[in-house]
Amino acid sequence: MNKLLKLKHLYNLSLIEDSYFEGFSASDENYNIPGGFKELENMVLNCHLCNLSKSRNKVVFGEGNLHSKIMFIGEAPGREEDLQGRVFVGRSGELLTKMIENVLNMKREEIYITNIVKCRPPQNRDPEIEEVESCKPYLLKQIEIINPRVIVPLGRIAFKYLLNNETPITKARGNLYSFKGIKVIPTFHPSFLLRNPSKKKEVFIDLKFIKEFL
Fold first, then answer.
1. Which residues, including other chains, have CB under 8 Å from residue 207's CB and lie 6 or more apart?
2. Which residues does 44 contact at the CB level (< 8 Å), separation at least 6?
3. Distance CA 208, CA 18 (A)
4. For a surface tag, which of 40, 47, 80, 94 has the fewest beta carbons within 10 Å of its beta carbon?
5. pTM to 2 decimals?
6. What are the structural domain ranges in the chain?
7. What is the pLDDT of residues 73-99, one digit of tens each?
8. What phi, psi does 9 have (nearest 5°)?
9. Cα–Cα separations (whole angstroms), residue 114 to 10, 171, 192
10. pLDDT value of residue 110
11. Do 185 and 150 form a contact (C-beta atoms < 8 A)?
12. Nearest residue to 139 via CA among 201, 6, 47
């Protein structure tokens, strides 16, 4: 990261990182959730902290209910997401929507959904550590504002970088973890399920566990 990007990164951190380690509180009287969230979104839409900004079409910030009890976190935008600027569209998005509606018995709009990084890595490769570190303050602020009861990392990349945990997703899925006082229950990514339909049963079990927990 060159000196200019480092300065931009430090500036962004100074704007949005004040309360990361003080615990989350969505009821803070001094925190205007709509204004704060819109300000954060505008910052992300204009972000150029890493090289992904050079190849992206659109930033994919995330979408859903800002008061949701559940927050899904994926890996990174894919081709369709990059073109539309929306999270989880295309076949993976359709499957995720069905999972939410048929197992959690909720509408997709009731849940907040985002990714570890907000711009598409070229050829859908895994995001690199510098890209994750540049984007992570944005994710942390999203979590702080939404303050869900449960975070659901979708797939190994989301689980690995959220919790700094190298446990394979095949072993981590369905287990209960914690992130800054919020319960975390990882499961498989919808794109993995499209390639491995036999694993849908395990995700069904994971989502039933999440539903019972709530």
1. 99, 103, 104, 187
2. 59, 61, 118, 138
3. 36
4. 94
5. 0.84
6. 3-213
7. 999 999 999 999 999 998 999 999 999
8. -65, -45
9. 23, 23, 17
10. 96
11. yes
12. 47
